[in-house]
Amino acid sequence: MTEENKLLLKQAFKAIFEHDVVNEETIAAFFSKEYRQWVDGHELDYQDFIKHIQAQKKRVATVSIEFKSMIAEHDKVATVHLIDALTKEGDPVRGKVIAQFTIKNKKIVACEELTFLHEAKEKDRDLGSVR
């Protein structure tokens, strides 16, 4: 189950974050309607998460994600991953994310996340939680 959960997470990131257009059906394929995310002092429910993805897509032209580590135990997957993005205005956004995901019934149900942006303009520092 742990390898399956890691694969699910990688597939979700690729399908949602690394494609230009993402619809709600794609999000629903990976995320539970009961999804909750806690990121940098903000809490998002499933609908907030959809708004978050839509808001990111409006501001970000490209993004790539590199998983530095991924550890799975029971229904949890912990990751350290690097983000390298370019806004639609041409500004770079680079950072490190430390996150723990909970997966139940082949869906991501929760995420606790800390984002550290080491390169970003002030106006882009909310990209981890923007809605």
From TrEMBL:
Residues 11-110 form the SnoaL-like domain. It comes from the Bacteria. Pfam families: SnoaL_2. InterPro entries: NTF2-like_dom_sf, SnoaL-like. This is SnoaL-like domain-containing protein. It comes from Legionella oakridgensis.
